[in-house]
UniProtKB/TrEMBL annotation:
Organism: Mesorhizobium abyssinicae
Domain of life: Bacteria
Keywords assigned by UniProt, alphabetized: Hydrolase, Metal-binding, Zinc
Gene3D superfamilies given in the database record: Zn peptidases
SUPFAM superfamilies xrefs: Zn-dependent exopeptidases
Protein name, UniProt field: Succinylglutamate desuccinylase/aspartoacylase family protein
InterPro entries with a match to the protein in the record: AstE_AspA_cat, N-alpha-Ac-DABA_deacetylase
Matching Pfam families: AstE_AspA_cat
Amino acid sequence: MHRSIERIAGDSEGVSYEFPVLRFEGTDKAAPSAYLQAALHAGELPGVVAIDALMPMLARAEAEGRIMGAITIVPWANPIGRAQYHFGEHQGRFHLGTRTNFNRGFPLLAAPDTALLPDTTLATPDQRLKSRLLQLSLGHDIVLDLHCDDEGLPYLYIHTSLWPAMADCAAAMGVDAVLLWNEDTDGTFEGASIMPYQNVPAEVARFDRRVATTVEYRGILDVDGELAASDAEGLYRLLVARGVVADPALATPGAFTGTVAPLENIDMMPAPKGGAVVYDVKPGDRVAKGARLAKIVHAPGETGGSMEVFAPQAGLILTRRSRRIIRAGEDLLKLVGDKRSDDARSGTLED
């Protein structure tokens, strides 16, 4: 394994940001290659500890000559967000200098060619970071962006062009749900990883071997050794299933039996009032139409001081907020409905 350091220039003299890149060389030039990164939203750490648990498995495979395709790993992809604290609270989702989500604004290239990347000479540090991460990942057959939600089940975002071809990956990773999307106007990292292949010849796109997904590893507090080991095993199974690593001891993944739904089926349930949220449901619950999901206490102790929120359709509770204080209009949860939501959102579900 080779370790190198990437440096991103800051926007004033004497300021720069660093992050390590770990690389394994493959022994078979024809084998698929893989790129894994974690914590693009710098405070989302389940993927960080999963990569930590994966590394000894890859080191063993390397020692035994079983790494067939090249593997590039960025265990903590956002040194800028990692350093951001405001009044003692970590702020890793948005760049404080530009107020832009770290997982928005990636260049959406017309083809998988690094020569098409924009000139970042006069760019902001977060734009430089995004350009470099995309440059590191472009050209790999497998691109995994490891995130987590507030509280939730493990699930994947997958472009419709890769489904159901990626069903083996979902099964290998042991996730509970897959959300399918087909439009990216915001420039997510996943969108920047798959959109360049949408209008190129089939022999370049190679959708039969291509993997690009945002992995949501449960909730932000699920930074746990046992879960990390399980998630690492899922990543390893995917790499083996797709031929990046050879391991005859592992069986081929079975059929994916989890929930599969388009983004348009998601009900986010905006809060009608601000206040304290008392949930009646948790991630993994299946609910019927009309079931009570939560109560919002907006005027405690007063008559009519709370409002109830009910399910607009039947479905699966995928996520909910980790904080119990909410403002009017903020989303309460993700309900994966059995049909299209009356409040369907195109593109990204959240800011």
